[in-house]
């Protein structure tokens, strides 16, 4: 065990994510032996007194065989059908496998909408915490049967990171079909393994991308998931399923992503990573400076444009005049109201339109700055 990885070895609450490629046969069907081998590792950790939340892909893959399909379908309707058939088979297999150790599991199916809507977010948090309190091992998957755009989340990588901060985990382990993060395609000459990532600059110049045969995620989604988790103060290990036991023991396997030095509020983490901007507000340079550097509320006077359809309470992206996203916040007005308010002071608005207009477009407590790691990762892919 290395000193820097003791945080993983000593973690009390751990989120472990396994992708479809770690759970399936070469033909794309669920591999019972692989599932049992992974359950052996997770059960050992659980019986040692640690809490485990397991995020498992594989519902669509599990449904391929029963539907007579040889590859992941391209159309959404068939993907949903495969998930509907496969999810029951998958959870039944986990229930049986964990039962060998006297452990009970509970199924939790989530969509991006559950993570984006604040009330749903709290409900999911409460349910997961109660399952853990009752000694149940939660098995989380995306609800692919009803998901639409969410079905392309990225092989549950982003979902795992969101769950890690949802349950305030102490560590996140991402299991892939690749043993670590590399500077390029590890199947090609010249690709070097990256043992640790401390800051965004460590990702500069690497080439990310690619998707699995039965999954949807590539390395870019795993790096993005690691960014979300480490930003929440959760260290991350990225490795393959064969190295799961070593990763949980703090051994120097895979790539270790160092956690941030502080853990932001759950509200800000939710706003930054679990929501999607429903529209855009364009700001003049003075307003950008006030929001970004001076951490002020967004006032009507600094807004020069509004895009999209949204209502009061929706998350919206706050942008420079050129469209660069700098922040996201919960807006206090409908999109149709803002053009009349732009460029006006709140005092003038209160005098001319009524006291209910003497309020911010977005209050600073409902505003979170967005870093530029997304851009860095996407440029590398």
Low-confidence stretches: 150-154, 210-217, 372-381
Q: Percent of residues in helical segments?
A: 25-40%
| Shape summary | globular
Range of strand content: 15-25%
Major beta sheet summary: 8 strands, mixed
Q: Can you identify the CATH superfamily of the largest domain? A: Acetylglutamate kinase-like
Count of DSSP H/I helices? 14
CATH architecture of the largest domain: 3-Layer(aba) Sandwich
- CATH domain topology of the largest domain: Carbamate kinase
Strand arrangement within the widest β-sheet reads 3-4-2-1-5-9-10-8
Alpha carbon gap, first and last residue: 32 Å
Q: What is the residue-mean pLDDT, rounded to a whole number?
A: 86
Task: Tell how many strands the DSSP assignment holds.
Answer: 15
Order of helices and strands: HEHEHHEHHEHEEEEHEHEHEHEEEHHEH
The Cα radius of gyration reads 22 Å
CATH class of the largest domain: Alpha Beta
Q: What would you call the structural class? A: alpha/beta
Domain module tally: 2
């Amino acid at each position: 065990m290395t000193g820097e990885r003791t945080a993983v070895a000593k973690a009390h609450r751990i989120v472990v994510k396994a992708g479809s490629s770690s759970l399936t046969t070469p033909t794309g069907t669920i591999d019972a032996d692989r599932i049992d081998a992974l359950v052996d590792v997770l059960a050992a950790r659980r019986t040692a007194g640690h809490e485990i939340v397991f995020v498992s892909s594989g519902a669509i893959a599990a449904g391929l065989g029963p539907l007579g399909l040889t590859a992941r379908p391209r159309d959404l309707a068939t993907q949903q059908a495969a998930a509907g058939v496969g999810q029951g088979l998958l959870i039944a297999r986990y229930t049986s496998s964990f039962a060998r150790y006297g452990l009970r599991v509970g199924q939790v199916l989530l969509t991006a909408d559950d993570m984006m809507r604040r009330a749903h977010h709290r409900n999911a948090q409460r349910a997961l915490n109660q399952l853990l309190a009752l000694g149940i091992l939660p098995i989380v998957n995306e609800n692919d049967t009803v998901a639409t755009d969410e079905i392309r989340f990225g092989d549950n990588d982003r979902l795992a990171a969101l769950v890690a901060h949802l349950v305030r985990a102490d560590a996140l382990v991402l299991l892939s079909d690749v043993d670590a993060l590399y500077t390029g395609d590890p199947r090609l000459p010249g690709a070097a393994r990256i043992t640790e990532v401390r800051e965004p600059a460590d990702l500069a110049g690497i080439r990310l991308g690619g998707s699995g045969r039965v999954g949807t995620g590539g390395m870019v989604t795993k790096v993005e998931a690691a960014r979300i988790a480490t930003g929440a103060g959760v260290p991350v290990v990225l490795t393959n399923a064969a190295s799961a036991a070593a990763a949980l023991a703090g051994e120097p396997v895979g790539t270790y992503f160092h956690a941030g030095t502080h853990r932001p509020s759950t509200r800000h983490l939710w706003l930054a990573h679990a929501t999607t901007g429903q529209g855009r507000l364009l700001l003049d340079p003075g307003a950008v400076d006030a929001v970004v550097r001076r951490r002020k509320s967004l006032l009507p006077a600094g807004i020069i444009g509004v895009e999209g359809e949204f209502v009061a309470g929706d998350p919206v992206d706050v942008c420079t005049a050129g469209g660069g996203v700098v922040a996201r916040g919960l807006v206090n007005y409908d999109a149709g109201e803002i053009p009349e308010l732009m460029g006006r002071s709140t005092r003038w608005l209160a005098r001319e339109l009524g006291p209910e207009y003497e309020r911010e477009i977005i209050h600073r407590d409902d505003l979170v700055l967005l870093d530029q790691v997304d851009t860095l990762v996407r440029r590398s892919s």
